[in-house]
Amino acid sequence: MRKVADCRQFPSESNCTLTISGEEEEVVRAATEHAVSVHGHSDSPELREQVRSTLTDEVAQHA
Q: Is 62 among the domain residues?
C-alpha cells in the first residue's frame, strides 16, 4: 500500500502544501529531506519516526 505525507496536516509559517506519496520508505526519506531543507528540522532517527507516524494510506483515484 502506498503511503502519503501531507504538510497541510501541520501548521507552518510558510503554509506549505506539499504532499508526497509512494512506498513507505521512499516517503519517509523524501519527507524527512523536505522537513530538513524547507522547514529547518534536524535529520535524526526521532524525526524519521515522527514522519513515519504521520503517514496515511493513499486513497486510490478512479479515472
A: no
